[in-house]
């Protein structure tokens, strides 16, 4: 399993500064390879070059690279020429992921002038940098994952690097937990659990569809790590998220002998994650759990944030708890078997995240479903980044995080009134458009936002209207039970523009306006 995150690129690209920021964001150790060489040699890089020559330094560099810790993930800033050696490059590719940082010549020159460190290969005047870049341009371009650092702070670059890596850490809820987007990650699940000291018995929960397609891979991965497994397979669909199934999980885990040292694994979409997480939060007063999302919607939204729950007859998620998992491991390869309707449903949440906090992601949604499926890893990574940023800013949903509820006040009501015949994302699509129109009606959103949103949603094959036979009064009544109401008043999360959603908006006469907007 690849463990290290390597930052590479020309001198002055920001490898050390970005590496420190990234390591801080991920809660991981940081190693500057040049500093490690200096510590081992008891001399500066400049002195090593002057007294022993470049060949001796390169031998030390290879040793320092091979001596990096093998017991866990580490962020590593490499020297500007470390991977010119093919053996070093092969070692890095085999032990981690490489991101090449790039910058314009002017940016590199400005940073190098401001840096106190002397770089031996740049001695000889300003023209030496240009010559070095020309000499290595093909080499640096050969790395498929690269991030431009010019005009950005180390923190901003670290965010883009995390998106490329699919590696995140949610810090602001309890002790924090890792989020990893790993192709083939399901087969390495046992290793991920062992690395995080989750070595007890495992209670896995999935639905029939997921179990049929991927259950054996899950079992093999856990067995390969020496973990015993008790599996529970539930019916698919929103109706599973109810008290009777919660009780079924509790009793099954007791019969299987699971204890407080066990780990619960939710393996499925949002329904399985919500139900299983809630069951784990209350079983033996709380046991560790991990979330293994299998749908697009769960990967970009439902698996994150530690919100768990079940439905009551009056509405969705009215009983639940904040109980974060120990790990969220998303394997984008699982999306290859996802039915097209589930893909569309997930894209509704992707669109929402674009409106909430990533205009570039919103723009990508204009390209349609085919383009999104072709770029699934990037779509997932950018989508979950928005949610993670909101979670860290407001872990208990006391303020700005409520922006993520855009479309949900009405969307949940649509789900309820239609008896959950629509997928969650389909209902949220209708809810987003209705709430965008509501935002325009009260003068909050700029004119044309709702029309633009409707074009994108329709282009993705998502519904934007509900059947005329459905009672609008019933919808308004269901929305009145929204769990986010304050002092018995429904407060909306409404968009002002793409990239900005205003939370806690009180709308006088919203029932009448909503009825009009729904037609």
Task: Write structural notes for this entry.
There is one protein chain. The protein is of the alpha/beta class and 519 residues long. It has three domains: 154 residues, P-loop containing nucleotide triphosphate hydrolases (Rossmann fold); 172 residues, Rossmann fold, CATH 3.40.50; 125 residues, Up-down Bundle (Dehydroquinate synthase-like, alpha domain). Helices cover 48% and strands 16% of the residues. The strands form four sheets. It has a seven-stranded mixed beta sheet with strand order 6-7-14-11-10-8-9, sandwiched between helices. Strand 12 and strand 13 form a beta hairpin. Helix 19 runs antiparallel to helix 20. The longest helix has 18 residues. The radius of gyration is 25 Å and the shape is globular. The mean pLDDT is 93.
The outline comes out as: globular
CATH top level assignment of the largest domain: Alpha Beta
Strand order of the biggest β-sheet: 6-7-14-11-10-8-9
Instruction: Please compute the radius of gyration using only Cα atoms.
Output: 25 Å
- Output mean pLDDT: 93
CATH topology of the largest domain: Rossmann fold
CATH 2nd-level architecture of the largest domain: 3-Layer(aba) Sandwich
Helical proportion? 40-55%
- Count up the domains: 3
Outline the biggest β-sheet: 7 strands, mixed
Strand composition percent: 15-25%
Count of alpha and pi helical runs: 22
- Global structural class: alpha/beta
Straight-line N-to-C gap: 54 Å
Ranges with pLDDT <50 over ≥5 residues? none
SS elements, strand count: 16
